[in-house]
Design brief:
The complex is a heterodimer of chains A (225) and B (385).
Chain A (H helix, E strand, L loop, with lengths): L1 H32 L5 H13 L2 H12 L4 H10 L7 H25 L3 H9 L4 H12 L1 H16 L3 H7 L9 H10 L3 H27 L10
Helix pairs in contact in A: 1-5, 1-8, 2-5, 3-5, 3-9, 5-8, 5-9, 6-7, 8-11, 10-11
Chain B lengths: L8 H4 L6 E10 L8 E10 L1 E6 L6 H9 L6 E6 L2 E5 L4 E2 L7 E4 L11 H6 L7 H14 L15 H13 L5 E5 L7 H18 L2 E6 L2 H7 L2 E6 L2 E6 L1 H6 L4 H7 L3 E11 L4 E6 L5 E5 L9 E5 L5 E3 L10 E13 L2 E7 L3 E6 L1 H6 L7 E6 L5 E3 L4
Parallel strand pairs in B: 3-9, 3-10, 7-8, 8-9
Antiparallel strand pairs in B: 1-2, 1-4, 4-5, 5-6, 10-11, 12-13, 12-15, 13-14, 15-21, 16-20, 17-18, 17-20, 18-19
The chains are: A mainly alpha (225), B alpha+beta (385).
Chain lengths: 225, 385
């Protein structure tokens, strides 16, 4: 039971943080360097999941992926089943829910890069793409790593959105946090304690590794600043 | 020097003798309803050093940014050789990456996470590996930084960083090089050596080098050609000698080293003698200056170099000089081998003497003296609009 939930949770976290890496990098780059006037609007949308109750986000995602919405209907026509109460549905909800945890550290570290370095890169003939891979990404790597690990850890511990979208189907949508809830409901405190400790240890280990890595002097490329 | 083996291509190619011509206008609205600033400059420069001189805020960096493509002018044209980089009429505006302009930013902007060699090779992505390495080896040698190829910018000295930035800009073989006060932080010896290496490099390349500075010593040390910018407008261009010989604007006057600048009104024109009489404002002191084409009803400024003034300890007679002004020394101080005297003649003059002259004339504060100034040492300056 617990192995099944743990495997599912880890699988979800890996998929979600990978999707967020692919989605977050261009979004963070845009937020850091764009001079559009309506940038603040996008910033507000990206940050929304931090303050929104998971039930609110979960509810609207559930409506959006349900067969009555255009997106849900299109998905059902394509695959023959609804996104609601499936692993794929969980991925969609979790990506939205963890978005700020991936994008904000990335955007913060990108915008701390001296813009003169980007000018210098362009003056040496580099395309924006080359500038991103050779200058922005290496210098912003600590922030990218933070965003990746935070979105991973945040997905591990998520509860409300998963409950709203996925329900509680063992093997399909029952994550560790839902399992703990289930065990407490059944008054099985001993098992609940074991499961909870496992999740606690896992998240703590991840964050320790992250902050330990960031302390290492190898990240400090600004020796003369 | 014996040259064996394969000759590197840069030394084999004939100099380009490029020409850069700029005619641009860019207006900045004033912040918070303040006065607006307009950069309006038009000039052409050829292979070799051109000094772009002006006070801070005169628009020097904006001008370079426009040539490099980091800023876009409102209208005008920027052309290297036959290639238009910017043309407001045909709506052409090449991005910085396609302009072939080398630009040394004031901060140098070396990539901190790359070694010296990686920095230098950054602009050579289009070449194959062996060509890239040959070119970078050549430029590292020209600028004497081969020994630090494997180090990062954080691990080398300020002068070495300047050399790396120069090498990185030049290795791509730009058609124009822009330098934004890159050497101001360096001591004179380090600076001279870097400039000598840059000159040697450009002997073979023949590109225009536009060098921005607000330091007037650099103008004399480096300039073959000077452009003076004042409040966004070009006020003088020519060899340092030509520009400074007959200064007509205040920036040039400061550049030429006028220690004495007086607000004056023109009280008499004498075309038959080729002179005019100017009265120093707030005094009854008149000086004779060469007749200059100006609007005599407007106030003018008269500039006199402190070294052009003679000091006499008795009233001089039988002189060709038209200006003999009686006064009293108010202070004397020595800097290196120059004695700086302040003399009150009704207006305060600064006069530079040698320590020997001070001794033989027994000059002390309070000594009565006569100042002698030739008409042609009085330079009438135009107020630039």
């Amino acid at each position: 039971m617990i192995t099944q939930a743990l495997t599912l949770t880890l699988r979800l976290a890996v998929v979600v943080s990978a999707v967020l890496l692919a989605l977050g990098l261009p979004l963070a780059y845009w937020l850091a360097f764009s001079r559009r006037r309506w940038k603040f609007f996008v910033e507000a949308i990206v940050s929304l999941p931090i303050v929104l109750p998971p039930t609110v986000l979960g509810f609207y995602v559930l409506v959006a992926i349900g067969p009555l919405s255009p997106f849900g209907g299109w998905y059902q026509a394509l695959t023959g089943h609804s996104l609601a109460f499936t692993f794929e549905g969980l991925v969609v909800g979790s990506v939205l829910y963890s978005l700020p945890f991936a994008v904000q550290p990335m955007a913060a570290s990108f915008s701390s890069i001296d813009r003169k370095l980007l000018d210098a890169s362009a003056l040496l003939g580099a395309s924006p793409r080359r500038t991103f891979w050779r200058i922005v990404l290496p210098l912003g790597l600590p922030g990218v790593l933070t965003g990746f690990v935070l979105s991973f850890a945040h997905t591990l511990g998520e509860f409300g959105v998963v409950l709203m979208i996925g329900g509680n189907i063992p093997g399909a949508t029952q994550t560790v946090s839902i399992l703990i809830y289930d065990q407490v409901q059944a008054l099985d405190y001993t098992t609940a304690n074991r499961t909870a400790l496992l999740l606690l240890a896992l998240c703590f280990a991840l964050l320790t590794i992250l902050y330990g890595l960031r302390r290492r002097s190898a990240w400090n490329v600004w020796g003369w600043k | 020097m014996e040259c064996l083996g394969v000759e590197v291509s840069a030394s084999a190619a004939p100099p380009l003798n490029e020409r850069l011509s700029v005619r641009i206008r860019k207006c900045f609205p004033g912040a918070n309803g303040g006065p607006s600033f307009t950069l309006d400059a038009s000039f052409a420069v050829y292979a070799g050093f051109t000094i772009l001189f002006g006070a801070s805020g005169a628009g020097k960096t904006t001008l370079l940014d426009c040539v490099a493509g980091l800023q876009t002018p409102d209208e005008g044209q920027i052309v290297i050789g036959e290639t238009a980089l910017f043309d407001s009429l045909s709506r052409r505006n090449l991005p910085p990456s396609r302009r072939s302009v080398g630009y040394l930013l004031q901060s140098l902007a070396l990539f901190p996470h790359m070694t010296v060699e990686q920095n230098v090779q950054y602009g050579l992505a289009a070449l194959n590996r062996s060509e890239r390495e040959a070119r970078s080896r050549e430029v590292l040698e020209s600028f004497r930084i081969s020994t630090m190829a494997g180090r990062r910018p954080g691990e080398i000295s300020g002068g070495e960083r300047q050399r790396v930035a120069l090498a990185r800009a030049l290795v791509t073989r730009p058609r124009v090089l822009l330098l934004d006060e890159p050497l101001t932080a360096l001591d004179a010896v380090t600076k001279t050596r870097i400039v000598d290496d840059l000159r040697a490099w450009n002997q073979r390349r023949g590109i225009p080098i536009l060098y921005v500075t607000h330091d007037r010593d650099e103008v004399f040390a480096l300039g073959e050609n000077v452009i003076v910018l004042e409040a966004g407008r070009l006020v003088a261009q020519g060899s340092p000698h030509d520009v400074l010989h007959r200064p007509q604007s205040e920036t040039v006057a400061q550049l030429a080293g006028f220690e004495n600048i007086f607000e004056c009104s023109v009280i008499g024109l004498h075309p038959e003698q080729g002179t005019m009489t100017c009265r120093i404002a707030g005094s009854a002191l008149d000086v004779e200056a060469p007749l200059t084409r100006i609007d005599a009803s407007q106030p003018v400024r008269v500039g006199i170099r402190a070294g052009d003034i003679l000091v006499a300890s008795a009233a001089p007679q039988g002189l060709s000089a038209r200006n003999v002004l009686a006064g009293v020394i108010t202070s004397l101080r020595q800097r290196d081998v120059t004695v700086i005297a302040k003399v009150n003649c009704g207006a305060e003059f600064e006069v530079h003497l040698t320590p020997g002259a001070r001794q033989s004339l027994h000059l002390e504060p309070g000594t009565r003296v006569w100042l002698v100034v030739k008409t042609y040492s009085c330079h009438v300056l135009q107020e630039s609009r």
